[in-house]
């Protein structure tokens, strides 16, 4: 987890810093096969060189993205849990409990869905919105 040290220490709010550290360590502990890296100034986890999940912070939330395919696959779950999201990002407000179960499912989905992907991002499917 040394990969994320500078990112974590750069977060000004101590409660936000603690949450980010907790979530990143949780991912690392639960998915030890994933590699860590910083790209686009964001902590992320990869598997065999392909993107699995990335995180970002803002004043209002800790966000993560499992790519559009991961979000669309869990769209009904996100709506049922009333979790704020777009087609590219899931936002977890700082003051609310973090939904680790949904994060776990999204990571597992990406690991399985991208098992044979040999690029960092999923291939773009032309003609699909």
Describe this structure in words.
It comes from Pediococcus cellicola. Pfam families: DUF1801. With 129 residues, the protein is α+β, with helices and mostly antiparallel strands. It has a single domain, classed as Aspartate Aminotransferase, domain 1, CATH 3.90.1150. Helix content is 38%, strand content 22%. The protein has a 5-stranded antiparallel sheet. The radius of gyration is 14 Å and the shape is globular. The termini are far apart. The model has no long low-confidence stretch (mean pLDDT 93).
Helix/strand layout:
Blueprint lengths: L4 H5 L4 H17 L4 E5 L2 E6 L2 E8 L3 E5 L1 H7 L1 H6 L9 E4 L6 H14 L16
Antiparallel strand pairs: 1-2, 2-3, 3-4, 4-5
């Amino acid at each position: 987890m040394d990969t994320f040290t500078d990112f974590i220490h750069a977060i000004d709010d101590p409660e936000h810093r603690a949450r980010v550290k907790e979530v990143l360590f949780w991912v690392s502990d639960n998915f030890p096969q994933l590699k860590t890296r910083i790209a686009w100034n964001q902590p992320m986890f990869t598997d065999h060189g392909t993107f699995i999940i990335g995180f970002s912070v803002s004043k209002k939330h800790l966000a993560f993205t499992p790519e559009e395919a991961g979000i669309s696959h869990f769209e009904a779950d996100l709506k049922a849990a009333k979790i704020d999201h777009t087609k590219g990002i899931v936002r977890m407000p700082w003051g609310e409990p973090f939904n680790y179960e949904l994060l776990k499912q999204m990571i597992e989905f990406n690991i399985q869905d991208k098992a044979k992907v040999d690029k960092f991002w999923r291939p773009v499917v032309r003609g699909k919105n």
